[in-house]
Amino acid sequence: MPPRPRLDPALVADDTKLAAVVDDAIHHDPDASAVQVEILRLQHELRELVDADAWGTYLSVEEQVTARWSELAVALVRWAYGEGVKTSGRTP
After folding, report:
1. Angle 76-79-83 from CA coordinates, rounded to 5°
2. Residue 60 above 90 pLDDT?
3. Average pLDDT for the chain
4. Predicted confidence band of residue 84 (pLDDT cuts 50, 70, 90)
5. Which terminus has fewer CB within 10 Å in the chain: N or C?
6. In this structure, how many other beta carbons lie within 10 angstroms of the beta carbon of residue 77?
7. Contact residues for 46 (Cβ-Cβ < 8 A; gap 6+)
8. Is-contact 27 34, C-beta < 8 A?
9. What 3-state DSSP class applies to 68?
10. Cβ atoms of 12 and 81 closer than 8 Å
């Protein structure tokens, strides 16, 4: 995993930049990658079982769930920063 940037007030305050840092951390996490492979496999199976309308509804639900988890991840990073976490370890 590449080094993560140190959090600072400007980065934490910028929604777009902070979301990009969170996305990058998730993208490089081996456990998250393994889960993503399984999600794609299951989505492929589901796509074969449902009609186009049901698939469209499922994709809409997935979009909302993903957006919510993304918001929560950014909120958790902001909370952790407020508690003194600046990198993957705690500040002294």
Report:
1. 135
2. yes
3. 89
4. confident
5. C
6. 19
7. 55, 58
8. no
9. helix
10. yes
